[in-house]
């Protein structure tokens, strides 16, 4: 088949019972193919088990598995993604299992800036921070941003390894709406810990601009910047439409396109004849930060695995999906230039206070704030007393209890058991802690208590029995 043929044309020309063998050694082109596999229709991902790192990647039942639900997607990237050779064949060689990785867990320089100090338990799980710059009722966004910057300084001194901020919009209780700006400020205020996004919601942005922003951050703070990428809007649908400048854009799931473009801007490597190959992202090109995929379901888990990227899961608001998503990530993982084996970080809500009762009292603020958000009434973070006095109906009370049941809330002994149980159940390589409380002093105190637990000898005890 001629080299100018594209995947979509090949898929349309091959009978359902035929097989297509994809031949290409270029890792960027292979990355495009990996991302495209994830966009296949529901139930048609069995072919993704082919070993895409090898020169021969088998795409089974090509005419059906590449029949994307969104024709717009097939007409854009697929038509511009030229491959070197396609061959029609009736006999397909069996996929070869991925070779065992060489000694060593990861390219540590991409994941850690300095030596790992603060770890938890016998597996020495590193501890990190996720912050949303919460705006308390009666406070201001400016005060919240100053408190977040101060928290970054303090947690760096405590030994936490990375500090991420999240992108949210149209939420009066969260001030971290522009992660690149806040990341630059926090990186200036600290000196050793990694700083990054947890995450940048890629569908809200143009990939070229993200590459320029994070390339600049990496150039200014080399070896310290993490780019965590998510595909959710991080807001309501009306605000998402405003961010994307048209309601029609909400229905275009071009996340694989955007992600592969982002890699292209950073590396300068594109599939042959790609229209963007003549454009240079400055200073993105050559300044690639550590890239992570974020998720709360199985989609990003599979994609992170196939691309050989580290994966961060949002256990703090999607606890029911944690174990299935991590299993998918590890199942689909392929060694890459970034990682030799899977590296999974779990983000968990943790509130540690002097007693269980005090911790649950403090947790009421975040719980009520989340309840109001889900009801379409977002606002600043209420005080714990307001949360305690709130007249919950039966359904709201059940919602609150369900949410708190997935969090680690309590006195130091309770939190120690909770973290041990979670890290054991998930086999997480790293734990990222988020603490949503009303008072910034209580937030800092919680991180201090967790750090003390991590340094204490009893932190190495086995998790509690199920």
Walk me through what this model shows:
It is a single chain. The chain has 466 residues and is α/β, with parallel strands linked by helices. It folds into two domains: 7-89, no CATH class; 108-353 and 399-460, TIM Barrel (Alpha-Beta Barrel), CATH 3.20.20. It is built from 17 helices and 13 strands. The chain has helices spanning 7-13, 27-38, 62-65, 71-80, 108-111, 141-158, 179-189, 207-220, 237-244, 255-267, 298-307, 322-332, 356-374, 384-389, 394-405, 412-426, 440-455, and strands at residues 19-23, 56-60, 85-89, 119-120, 125-131, 162-165, 194-201, 225-230, 290-295, 311-314, 344-352, 408-410, 430-434. Strands 5-6-7-8-9-10-11-13 form an eight-stranded parallel beta barrel, surrounded by eight helices. Strand 9 (290-295), helix 11 and strand 10 form a beta-alpha-beta unit. Helix 6 (141-158) crosses helix 7 and helix 8 crosses helix 10 (255-267). The longest helix has 19 residues, at 356-374. It is globular and about 65 Å long. The chain starts with 6 loop residues before the first helix and ends in an 11-residue tail after the last helix. Residues 1-108 and 459-466 have low confidence and may be disordered.
Helix content: 40-55%
Total count of helical runs of at least 4 residues: 17
- Report the major sheet: 8 strands, parallel, barrel
CA-atom Rg in angstroms: 23 Å
**What's the CATH class of the largest domain, please?**
Alpha Beta
Structural class: alpha/beta
Distance between the termini: 57 Å
Architecture of the largest domain, according to CATH?
Answer: Alpha-Beta Barrel
**CATH homologous superfamily (4th level) name of the largest domain:** Luciferase-like domain
Strand order of the largest sheet: 5-6-7-8-9-10-11-13
What number of domains?
2
Helix/strand order, N-terminal first = HEHEHHEHEEHEHEHEHHEHEHEHHHEHEH
- In terms of DSSP E residues, the strand content is 5-15%
The name CATH uses for the topology of the largest domain is TIM Barrel
Based on Cα principal axes, name the global outline: globular
Average of per-residue pLDDT values: 77
Low-confidence stretches: 1-108, 459-466
Task: Report the strand count.
Answer: 13
């Amino acid at each position: 088949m001629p080299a100018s043929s594209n995947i979509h044309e090949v898929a349309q020309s091959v009978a359902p019972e035929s097989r297509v063998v994809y031949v290409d050694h270029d890792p960027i082109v292979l990355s495009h193919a990996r991302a495209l596999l994830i966009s296949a229709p529901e139930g048609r991902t069995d072919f993704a088990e082919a070993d895409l790192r090898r020169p021969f990647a088998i795409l089974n039942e090509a005419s059906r598995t590449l029949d994307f639900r969104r024709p717009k997607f097939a007409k854009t990237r697929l038509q511009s993604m030229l491959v070197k050779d396609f061959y029609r064949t009736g006999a397909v060689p069996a996929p070869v299992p991925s070779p065992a990785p060489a000694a060593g867990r990861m390219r540590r320089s991409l994941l850690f800036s300095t030596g790992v100090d603060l770890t938890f338990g016998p597996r020495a799980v590193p501890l990190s921070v996720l912050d949303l710059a919460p705006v308390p009722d009666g406070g201001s966004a400016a005060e919240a941003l100053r408190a977040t910057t101060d928290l970054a300084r303090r947690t760096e001194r405590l030994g936490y390894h990375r500090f991420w901020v999240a992108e949210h919009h149209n939420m009066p209780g969260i001030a971290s709406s522009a992660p690149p700006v806040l990341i630059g400020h926090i990186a200036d205020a600290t000196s050793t810990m990694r700083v990054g996004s947890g995450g940048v919601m890629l569908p809200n942005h143009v990939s070229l601009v993200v590459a320029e922003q994070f390339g600049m951050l990496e150039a200014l703070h080399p070896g310290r910047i993490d780019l965590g990428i998510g595909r959710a809007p991080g807001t309501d649908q009306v605000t998402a439409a405003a961010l994307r400048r048209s309601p029609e854009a909400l229905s275009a799931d071009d996340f694989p396109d955007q992600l592969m473009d982002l890699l292209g801007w950073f590396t300068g490597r594109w599939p042959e004849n790609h229209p963007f190959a003549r454009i240079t992202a400055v200073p993105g090109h050559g300044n690639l930060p550590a890239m992570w995929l974020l998720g709360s379901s199985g989609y990003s888990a599979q994609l992170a695995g196939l691309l050989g990227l580290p994966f961060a899961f949002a256990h703090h608001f999607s606890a029911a999906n944690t174990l299935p998503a991590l299993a998918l990530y590890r199942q689909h993982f392929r060694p890459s230039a970034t990682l030799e084996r899977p590296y999974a970080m779990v983000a968990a809500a943790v509130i540690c206070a002097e007693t269980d009762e005090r911790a649950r009292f403090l947790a009421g603020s975040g719980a009520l704030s989340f309840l109001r958000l889900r009801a379409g009434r977002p606002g600043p973070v209420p005080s714990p007393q307001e949360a305690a006095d709130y007249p919950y109906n039966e359904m709201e009370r059940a919602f609150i209890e369900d949410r708190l049941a997935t969090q680690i809330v309590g006195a130091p002994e309770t939190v120690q058991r909770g973290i041990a149980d979670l890290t054991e159940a998930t086999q997480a390589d790293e734990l990222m802690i988020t603490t949503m409380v009303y008072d910034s002093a209580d937030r800092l105190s919680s991180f201090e208590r967790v750090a003390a637990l991590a340094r204490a000898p009893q932190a190495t005890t086995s998790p509690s029995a199920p």
